[in-house]
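Fill in residues.
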């Protein structure tokens, strides 16, 4: 890969799994302007790449996934700059959520504030046993500004989202799983568990994965059922559909081409 970043590490393995690591371990991987700029370009690259089939995001070191927006930078802003920063954070995390390949957060420690919002913009979250998640912005006299007030209620319901946002308390991995904030707790490493999950996803038809993501992202919209039917019908024109059904009838494993 030709791209190189100072605050991110990108690694793509031979099966097309990209691991994107936020790499500021001495600052608990806090999201400063440079991280956001680099993340924006990295996501453009990932979206356009034919090689990348799934994305796992994580944080460097074993203490933090991402401990939030960089508080040092937040401290110096005026109100209009703060609004711009919020809109940029929302846009970049939306770009992450809108990817049509599986996107998994391997939450390997603190996922606070913007870090929790980063994880929530992923399609699936896997937490390490030492993970702590939360939106502590109110303790700074702020509110979440990178989509957290919109995504948390979708995951955990409005009442729990209000409780967590208004107290700013951190939840441990066990509770996060219980309330639906994370999907799974890793027995050993969150990254290894994420790789395992991705492996089982990548055995499926790639075009089916894409259309499933697109359809689920329409849930709650008035046009959701209609989109589902269109996306379902579209797959009938693919080689993957023919291969998947033939393989079942011929009692063999399918070999998908993504066409
Ligand atoms: N922004 C900027 N720097 C941060 C940061 C953040 N969100 N989170 C941690 N850091 C920095 C610390 O300032 C410290 O830097 P220093 O060594 O130059 O002083 C370094 O990362 C290590 O953090 P430290 O607080 O010493 O580690 P800890 O193990 O005692 O505590 C946390 C870890 C995550 C509990 C604590 O750092 C924390 O509360 N961070 C802020 C969380 C937050 O409010 N996030 C929401 C922001 S919107």
């Amino acid at each position: 890969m030709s791209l190189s970043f100072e605050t991110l590490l990108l690694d793509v393995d031979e099966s097309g799994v990209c691991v994107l690591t936020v790499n500021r371990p001495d600052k608990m991987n806090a999201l400063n302007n440079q991280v956001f700029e680099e993340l924006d370009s990295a996501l453009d690259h990932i979206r356009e790449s034919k090689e990348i089939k799934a994305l796992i995001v994580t944080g460097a070191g074993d203490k933090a996934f991402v401990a939030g927006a960089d508080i040092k930078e937040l401290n110096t802003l005026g109100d209009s700059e703060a609004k711009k920063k919020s809109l940029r954070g929302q846009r970049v995390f939306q770009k992450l959520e809108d990817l049509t390949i599986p996107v998994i957060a391997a939450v390997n420690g603190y996922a606070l504030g913007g870090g929790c919002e980063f994880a929530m913009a992923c399609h699936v979250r896997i937490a390490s046993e030492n993970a702590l998640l939360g939106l502590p912005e109110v303790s700074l006299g702020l509110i979440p500004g990178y989509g957290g007030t919109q995504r948390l209620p979708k995951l955990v319901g409005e009442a729990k989202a209000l409780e967590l946002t208004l107290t700013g308390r951190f939840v441990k991995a066990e509770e996060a799983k219980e309330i639906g904030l994370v999907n799974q707790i890793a027995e050993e490493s969150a990254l290894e568990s994420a790789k395992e999950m991705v492996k089982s996803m990548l055995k499926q038809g790639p075009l089916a994965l894409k259309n499933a993501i697109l359809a689920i992202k329409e849930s709650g919209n008035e046009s959701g059922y209609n989109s589902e039917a269109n996306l379902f019908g579209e797959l009938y024109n693919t080689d993957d559909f023919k291969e998947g059904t033939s393989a079942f009838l011929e009692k063999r494993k399918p070999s998908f081409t993504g066409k």
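Residues 8-201 form a domain with the 2-enoyl-CoA Hydratase; Chain A, domain 1 fold (CATH 3.90.226.10).
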